[in-house]
């Protein structure tokens, strides 16, 4: 039995440039959809703005009544680094 040759290890530069090229291709196809018309355009625009313009959905919670104890609310935000 012959051994299957291992793929050539990729350099960090090759991996990084490949990710950049892939992101650019996706952006090139998403942008026209996001600026178009119809349901697909709305979905693409919301996705684009959430990921590229840091839009976020917010929730408002209204409480009524008296509390006889303390309440702590914790909100955690993860900062996404954009390419």
The parts where pLDDT drops under 50 for at least 5 residues are none
Q: Globular, elongated, flat, extended or rod-shaped: what is the shape?
A: flat
Please, how many helices?
A: 2
**SSE succession:** HH
Mean pLDDT: 79
Q: What composes the largest sheet?
A: none
Structural Rg: 23 Å
Structural commentary:
The structure is a single chain. The protein has helices at 12-34, 39-52. By secondary structure, it is mainly α. α1 (12-34) crosses α2. The radius of gyration is 23 Å and the shape is flat. The mean pLDDT is 79.
In short:
The chain is mostly helical and 83 residues long.
What brief labels describe this structure?
83 residues, mainly alpha, 2 helices
Describe the secondary structure blueprint for this structure.
Layout: H1 12-34, H2 39-52
């Amino acid at each position: 039995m012959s051994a299957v040759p291992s793929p050539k290890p990729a350099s960090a530069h090759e991996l990084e440039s490949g990710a950049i090229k892939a992101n650019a291709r996706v952006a090139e196809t998403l942008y026209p959809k996001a600026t178009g018309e119809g349901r697909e355009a709305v979905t693409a625009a919301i996705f684009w703005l959430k990921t590229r313009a840091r839009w976020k959905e917010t929730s408002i919670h209204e409480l009524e009544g008296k509390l006889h104890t303390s309440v702590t609310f914790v909100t955690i935000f993860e900062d996404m680094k954009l390419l």
